[in-house]
């Protein structure tokens, strides 16, 4: 049976996940990429090298992050957070977010770890999804 | 190192996968859902119950299907197929596609399996993504 999840259940899926799929609109086309993310205080944080998704979200801020827990075709849950892309430029906020990301993703490549020491050194983009809505569904 | 994949490599990822994330545009918002799919002759086929994604794609045909093979943060590949949503209405095509789907997904729920016997019985939607472009990237 398919069941609509409550807000808390949907957030729990998002918070438990580390790998999600970011959806954005590139010109007139939907675009989806796998990304590592973390949830902190109701916002979603991501670091990324520059590229198509960043360009797309700079043009059109609306984005979503989908995460799921899939056991098999008949037992899975999926949550999606909708919000606005916001690049984190402020140096101290940026360092703080990179620290959180490094804690959650100790495997960050040396280049990315280096960027946590000197955020100016590398062109790593840090952004948040300012979440204004979450939904979820489960098949169980 | 991140590497752009060739067409054949990107198709190989899509063909090997069974679970992907479908991206579409719902009104002005990106929307992403996990779905089972199959690739046949350069097209992507999906069955689905009616719902938000179907409504969205009936309004705006542009969609994408993202699939990936992820070992860890430093070893993964992802491919994305872009195309137009096309609902399969024709009864014989629909039955043929449902047969392919049932072969690939023997776990289809009884309701869905039943629909393969009598496609009129249930409101299962069958659609293809008419793929016109694939791209892919690998971290290795």
Provide a short characterization of the protein structure:
Chain A is α+β, with helices and mostly antiparallel strands and 140 residues long. Chain A has helices at residues 7-16, 52-59, 91-104, 110-117; strands at residues 2-4, 19-26, 29-36, 38-40, 43-48, 62-72, 75-87, 125-139. Chain A has one domain (2-91, 124-139): Electron Transport, Fmn-binding Protein, Chain A (Pnp Oxidase, Chain A), CATH 2.30.110.
Tell me about this structure:
Two copies of one chain form a homodimer. Chain A has one domain (2-91, 124-139): Pnp Oxidase, Chain A (Roll). In chain A, strands 1, 2, 3, 4, 5, 6, 7 and 8 form an eight-stranded antiparallel sheet that branches. Chain A has four helices and eight strands. The first copy, chain A, is α+β, with helices and mostly antiparallel strands and 140 residues long. Chain A has helices at 7-16, 52-59, 91-104, 110-117; strands spanning 2-4, 19-26, 29-36, 38-40, 43-48, 62-72, 75-87, 125-139.
Fill in the keyword field for this structure.
homodimer; about 140 residues; alpha+beta; Pnp Oxidase, Chain A; eight-stranded antiparallel β-sheet; 4 helices; globular
Fold blueprint:
2 copies of one chain form a homodimer.
Chain A: E1 2-4, H1 7-16, E2 19-26, E3 29-36, E4 38-40, E5 43-48, H2 52-59, E6 62-72, E7 75-87, H3 91-104, H4 110-117, E8 125-139
């Amino acid at each position: 049976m398919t069941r609509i999840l409550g807000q808390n259940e949907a957030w729990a899926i998002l918070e438990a996940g580390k790998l999600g799929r970011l959806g954005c609109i590139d010109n007139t086309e939907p675009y989806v990429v796998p990304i590592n993310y973390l949830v902190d205080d109701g916002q979603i944080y991501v670091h990324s090298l520059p590229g198509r998704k960043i360009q797309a979200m700079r043009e059109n801020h609306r984005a979503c992050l989908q995460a799921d827990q899939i056991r098999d075709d008949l037992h899975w849950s999926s949550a999606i957070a909708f919000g606005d892309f916001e690049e984190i430029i402020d140096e101290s906020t940026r360092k703080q977010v990179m620290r959180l990301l490094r804690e959650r993703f100790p495997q960050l490549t040396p280049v990315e770890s280096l960027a946590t020491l000197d955020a100016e050194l590398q062109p790593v983009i840090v952004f948040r999804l300012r979440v204004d809505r979450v939904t979820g569904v489960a098949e169980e």
